[in-house]
TrEMBL record:
The keyword S-adenosyl-L-methionine applies. CDD domains: AdoMet_MTases. It holds the Pfam family Methyltransf_25. Keywords: Methyltransferase, S-adenosyl-L-methionine, Transferase. GO terms for molecular function: methyltransferase activity. InterPro entries: Methyltransf_25, SAM-dependent_MTases_sf. This is Class I SAM-dependent methyltransferase. Residues 63-148 form the Methyltransferase domain. PANTHER family: METHYLTRANSFERASE, UBIQUINONE BIOSYNTHESIS O-METHYLTRANSFERASE, MITOCHONDRIAL. One of its GO terms (biological process) is methylation.
Length: 242
């Protein structure tokens, strides 16, 4: 059967999301997230372009990472900021007890905390942050859930950066070929291919997101859904990450 990427395949589910998935493979998947995201997610460039200019050497900037999973992005932002001599406090939240347990078992990093929670829990508690981020989470959501996340993001922070995969043949084939020799002992490769098939395109998102949000293409593989940034306010498309 030929692959058809014209529409989102929302009926597909990722293996690691199953409550009865293999705990050994799930552990390996969390451990390998940092490596695969370093190659495919583009967050180093996003940090340089859209996060570092917001940070200060004297004032602490608060960042919320929604759906933080294994915690690699949460920890990376804190690491990059510390290396640049900038002050930041990063909180990662995930409703999955397994992800929360993994992230909290990692060696602690100053300014990093992990909590088991939904974004709506933080809204209900009246919490606020300077910036909301997420990585490869939007493709997990239904249309109603996407609307709820974006509303929560607006309530929690004046700026948001939600990065995800673009559904395309280039992304599907590229991820499949580049990961084929690796990640055999985890869910990284099969779930990554499923993620591409479930993902939005920037054009699809721009047609449904509320005013003030804009999906900015980052590369042939991904985009950043932005709010409260120059790109989302003016419609300027950022250059692809190096």
């Amino acid at each position: 059967m030929s692959l058809d990427l014209r529409m989102r395949e929302t009926e597909l589910t990722e293996l690691m999301d199953a409550p009865d998935c293999d705990p050994r493979l799930l552990q390996s998947t969390y451990e390998q997230f940092a490596a695969v995201n370093a190659v495919f997610s583009g967050w180093r460039g996003i940090y340089r372009r859209s996060i570092r200019p917001l940070l200060s050497t004297t004032l602490v900037t608060s960042v919320l990472d929604i759906g933080s999973g294994g915690g690699d992005l949460t920890r990376a932002i804190a690491h990059w900021a510390a290396r640049d001599g900038l002050r930041v406090r990063v909180t990662g939240i995930d409703p999955d007890a397994r992800a929360d347990a993994f992230a909290n078992a990692l060696p602690p990093i100053r300014g990093v905390a992990f909590r088991r929670a939904f974004s709506s829990d933080l809204v209900a508690a009246g919490e606020s942050f300077d910036l909301v981020v997420s990585n490869h989470m939007l493709h997990h959501l239904t249309g109603e859930q996407l609307g709820g996340l974006l509303l929560d993001s607006e309530r929690l922070a004046p700026r948001s950066l939600h990065a995800d995969i673009t559904r395309s043949f280039v992304a599907y084939a590229g991820f499949g070929m580049l990961t084929a020799p690796f990640f055999r002992d985890s869910y990284i490769r099969p779930d990554g291919l499923t993620s591409v098939r479930r993902s939005f395109t920037p054009r699809e998102l721009d047609a449904v997101v509320p005013p003030g949000w804009r999906a900015v293409p980052r590369s042939p593989f991904g985009y950043v859904l932005e709010h409260g940034t120059d790109a989302s306010a003016t419609g300027v498309t950022g250059a692809p990450d190096a």
